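Re: duplicated header lines in exported structure tokens

Our pipeline writes sequence and tokens for each protein into one text file. With two proteins the header for the second block appears twice in some exports. Here is an export where it did not happen, for reference. First protein block:
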Amino acid sequence: MLKIAIQKSGRLYDQSVQLLKECGIELNNGNRQLKVQAFNFPAEAYFLRDDDIPQYVCDGVADIGIVGENVFFEKNKDIQIVRKLGFGRCRLSIAVPKSLKYSGLKDLNGLKIATSYTVLLKKFLEKNNLKAEIHEISGSVEIAPGIGLADAICDLVSSGSTLFTNNLKEVEVVLNSEAALVANKNLDEENTKILDNLLLRIDAVKAAKNYKYIMMNAPDHQLKNICALLP
């Protein structure tokens, strides 16, 4: 029985469950249970906080999990990414007040930067030989400059609307991220076979979506040629 850890709420929950459904794995989680067994696949799902998933997979409580790459790299557990999933795309970025004149990385020197991603931010600063003070906070990071808690922030960005609302501008990308399937490095033979089966299904789903996209966007003359190749 393959144990799958999934975010119990948040931006990856719906698409993670939808992916499993498209792979033919039905989960009845109407009551938001924390543990659900699949009807038609040798797997059960655990619904957990996203930040906890790498630890559960590392400890073997779960065999695999779906998390953002941002969480995978920030938690830095001894687990492996076995497949990038193509959804939940975002970026971990540094943003500063719109009023601040910013000309390049050197302008980060001496600033106090608020973030929930201290590990990734520290690596970014060290890589670029920058000296800035990291102020760790959780939740509502974007308000930190406005209340005088920090000079800048390092947080996840997707559309940028939250930054705009808080009079911030994105100036540096620390990490581009998307959802990924992570796995324990010591799966037994049975669960390795089940995982291989799941990966085949995921690859088939992704290939079908790509094919559908090509069909929908192909010019009429190319579409006729594509259809002529179909059995």
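Second protein block, exported in the same file:
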Amino acid sequence: MIRIGIVDDQEILRQGMKMILSAQPDMEVVGEGANGQEGYRLCEAHTVDLLLMDIKMPVMDGVEATRRIKRDFPNANVIILTTFDEDEYIFQALRFGASGYLLKDARPAKIVEAIRDVHSGGAMMQPQIAARVVEKFRSMDRKTGEADPRIQTLTPRELEIVQLIGNGKNNREIADELFITDGTVKNHISSILVKLELRDRTQLAIFAVKNKFV
């Protein structure tokens, strides 16, 4: 079972999400919260595999909650729930370790798909705002100048995988494209993260964009 927490200050949204997710045979909603502080406490009280986290909330917003949760509960994935005009919040949450974002009006099937994808090692970025996120990180790269020298430590196969991750491919899609197994993909990603001194797959996707793999 994928153990899920829902954190949003709108009760009607939490109840709607809970109804959708509880109907899935492989998902269990273990708790809810109305702000980031309650989301953190949820992780203290339960083993949480994934949090659906609103960005703008009272007491503690989703960005700060993501920072604290990923610091203290690194195995808990976070998917940010957002609206179309919250770019700066999204950038910060991704830098703190969120595994992606969903627009609040996403179809139920897309929400369920995103949860399964992130739980299996993917990253979720909806195309409606992905281009803006990519452009933000590209502009940051232009300010910093040269490509990261750690790229030179990667093997040709690892470079291929970085590019595919930067283009949003999950492990299964990478395995199919490169004619290797899921386990081999996971081993390569673990090696890449060590060489590039990155925390997780989302940081790797950002690295790929900033260093022009995409």
